[in-house]
Amino acid sequence: MNEVFSRYLFTQHILTGRPCAPEEAFQTCISLAQLFAVQITEGQAYACADVLKQVSEEFNEEVPEPFYRGFPQSVRELSPDQLLFDQVLSYLRTYGFNEFSQPVHSLLEKTAERSPYSEKHGVHAFVIMTEEKAREKVLETADNLLSSTRPLNAQQYEVLLTCVREYGMAVTHCAAKHTAVKLLLDTGDLSLSRFLKLPDVMKVMEQIGADRYGTDEIKKVKLRNKDRKLITGLINELILAGKTDIKACCEKQALWAGLLHQIHYKPVNDDAKDFADAMRSGINHSVYSDFEKEMSAGNVLQAQQILQEGKGSGEVLRKLNYLLSRCRNAGEVQEVLNRTETDNTIILLQMQRMYALYRTERIPRTFVFTKNGMIKTHTEADTETAGRRSLLSADVRDAAYTCIENRLQAKLKGKAGRVYINPAMKSCALPLAESASQGGFGVLACGSRKALPEGNFLRVFTYWEKVNDIDLAAFGLDEQGNQLEFSWRTMASNQSMAVTYSGDETSGYKGGSEYFDIDTEEFRRKYPGIRYVVFTDNVYSMIPFSDVTCTAGYMVRNEEESGRIFEARSVQTQFKITCASTFAYLFGIDLSTREMVWMNMAVNGSQNVAGESSHAFLLDVFRYTEVMSMHRFFSLCADTLCSDPAEADVIVSDTESEREGAEVIRSWDFAKIMKYMNN
User: Fold this and answer.
1) Which of 257, 260, 469, 600 is least surrounded by CB atoms within 10 angstroms?
2) 213, 211, 148: which is closest to 184 by C-alpha?
3) How far, in Å, CA of 391 to CA of 677, rounded?
4) Using one digit for the tens of pLDDT, what is the confidence trace for 442-467?
5) Which of 350, 521, 552 is nearest to 452 (CA)?
6) How far apart (Å, rounded) are the C-alpha atoms in residues 118 and 209?
7) Which residues pair with residue 420 across a beta bridge?
8) Distance in angstroms (rounded) separating the CA atoms of residues 42 and 51
9) What is the C-alpha to C-alpha distance for residues 654 and 665, in angstroms, rounded to an integer?
10) Among 452, 670, 422, which Cα is nearest to 558's?
């Protein structure tokens, strides 16, 4: 099976095998359990030796040693001066003398004795399918991905694109314009323009700029001849299909004028001539222009009507804060809310989260955007905060939240029929903005939580190839967002039983690894003001993650000195970081509840030192499941809630078995979850 599909199916706890002798199947199942804590719950007869090889590759037994090979015992036995001397000597050899060929290890640490690994641990339940059955599963997933109105993450899109290329899958529907744009560019199939409109050509230009020219700014893109032909063909295809919306194109009139000049555009019919003349005229007739005129005049209801008629209810919701902030009285607020309608569940869920987390105090806001598979943030300057006109009162905020909540409940009711929901799903968030995430084993939606077993400590890891220096860092956050850094810059004087760092590995062309050990109870005692810990990865060498091979994840351990530093059996999650930037958020810990919280976000930019920016905006992520969880979402979708899974049409659980006639949805089944979010 194609490696793209195998990797994706592994994240869904599915392996592909073939019929084999009972002895081979038995030995494979035993080896999987002993080496990787993988339990085969279905398809044992297909457990051929190739299955063991696949799991071994996914869990990666060959992880490079960290700087301190006796971690963590040898680290704690060294003084701050000794730790600092070790690292300075390493930096001198590597960055001073440009010698990266061999991994550098400590000269001062003592040999640490490690006992055999014999810890009890949980198991990972997997099923094994034949390649034919797995192919059906992949095609079903691809169809669900095409139904998503949200941009896909890199792994999801790779699965979809490979289905189109390898299986010849026909793209009969495509709900997300971002997905249609990506497919069009990667396949060159102009028939995919049927999912786009003429204004969407600017989305195509943005994607071309990001993928082929390394820029987010359309005006900086100087198209090569091949791309000029593609854009010209796309414009003509859309105009000939009658999708010429001149008013909408006026929103980016200057960019259109520049693009038409660059491709030497010649109209193919009268509609094309009218369009080209309008773009070159310099006169703006856009919906937003008319909208802003009414807003400036204080005519909020008229402005809302213009936006509703010209751009649709979804855009009204996106501008709802702006509209509400300009209302003159409570009656006008209520009228704006009464007129606000949409069939888009995703937008309603986004707005519900926004108003649930909305702060009515005049404090600096941090705006979070997702573009080209990475997040961007902007925190207001003091002058921006002081001059803000869109601050809502608590009463208006509550009225908006109630309105959105009521519409959401009405929209979802009865979508899933008879539903059984495992109570554990209260800790799982919805995949609302996963385009900036990485795919991998054990990955959950951003904001999802998983309890840490009592008495265990946490070992966070990263390892890499093809680059000489990736840095793992941790940041403590208090409830106000103030942060305390634990990284290569600070850990020489901060090593303790609460937090231990394996050293800054800066050498070895074949790669390296870094680790943090966190004892949550010790950490709370030593740093009582810290509520959360956030882990990050960044490439100090300034090479984007997309050009290296980097894996991150965490283990739950009982004994620090048992077995190897990296024990595959204790791995709870791990994923490849593949974003085209040098910085990524991994996950966090809520110290008060002893829960891991998924972040898994790629950050746009060239940041290569983790402590150079504020992470306070992540405080909202720790509250996502308070606002909406998988448990509450499917409760709203249910026509009837069942206490017995045997009576349900839809089973939302990570532990219940598959049952004929029922749809089983796991916390990692993003494609299935998105199907319900998009219908």
Assistant:
1) 257
2) 211
3) 30
4) 999 999 999 998 888 999 999 998 88
5) 521
6) 52
7) 651
8) 13
9) 8
10) 452
Q: Residue 622's closest CA among 519, 500, 530? A: 530
Q: Cβ(489)–Cβ(464) under 8 Å?
A: no
The helix or strand, by DSSP H or E, that contains position 350, with its residue range, turns out to be helix 345-356
Average pLDDT of the residues in 21-39: 95
Among the ranges given (107-116, 267-276, 326-335), the one the predictor scored with the smallest mean pLDDT? 107-116
Return the closest-CA partner of residue 484 out of 446, 441, 447, 527.
Answer: 527
DSSP 453: P
CB count in 10 Å sphere of residue 132? 9
Which amino acid would we find at residue 108? L
Partners of 38 in the β-ladder: 124
Phi then psi dihedrals of residue 488, to 5 deg: -60, -25
Sign of CA dihedral 98, 100, 102, 107: positive
Given CA atoms 615, 618, 620, 626 in this order, what sign does their dihedral have? negative
Mean pLDDT of the chain: 92
Confidence grade of residue 30 (pLDDT, cut at 50, 70, 90) = very high
Please report which confidence band the pLDDT of residue 511 belongs to, taking 50, 70 and 90 as the band edges: confident
CA dihedral 318, 320, 321, 324 (to 10 degrees): 170
CATH of 440-611, one of 2.60.60.30, 2.60.40.1880, 3.40.640.10, 3.30.70.100: 2.60.60.30
- How many angstroms from the chain centroid is the CA of residue 336? 33
CA nearest 120: which of 33, 20, 46, 239?
33
Closest C-alpha to 602, from 619, 615, 624, 585: 585
Q: Could you tell me how many helices (H) and strands (E) the chain has, helices first?
A: 25, 21
Alpha carbon distances (Å) from 324 to 289, 312, 446, 594: 19, 17, 29, 39
**Token representation of residue 396:** 């208006």
Q: Are 237 and 193 in contact (CB under 8 A)?
A: yes
- Alpha-carbon gap, residue 519 to 210, rounded angstroms: 41
- Give the residue among 40, 39, 42 at the shortest CA–CA distance from 658: 42
Question: In the chain, which residues fall in CATH 2.60.60.30?
Answer: 440-611
pLDDT tens for 50-98 read 999 999 999 887 899 999 999 999 999 999 999 999 999 999 999 999 9
Residues 6+ apart with CB under 8 A from 371: 206, 216, 604
Judge contact between 379 and 614, C-beta under 8 A.
yes
DSSP 461: E
Q: How many CB atoms lie within 10 A of CB 64?
A: 16
Please give the distance of CA 103 from its chain centroid, rounded to a whole number. 32
> Could you tell me what percentage of the chain is helix, strand and coil, using 3-state DSSP and rounding each to the nearest 5?
45, 20, 35
> Are 537 and 583 in contact, with CB atoms under 8 Å apart?
yes
Rg of the chain, C-alpha, whole Å: 27
What DSSP string runs through 248-264? HHGGGHHHHHHHHHHTT
Number of CB atoms found within 10 A of residue 20's CB: 18
pTM: 0.92
pLDDT average, residue stretch 156-164 = 96
What's the CA angle centered on 515, arms 512 and 521, to 5 degrees?
180
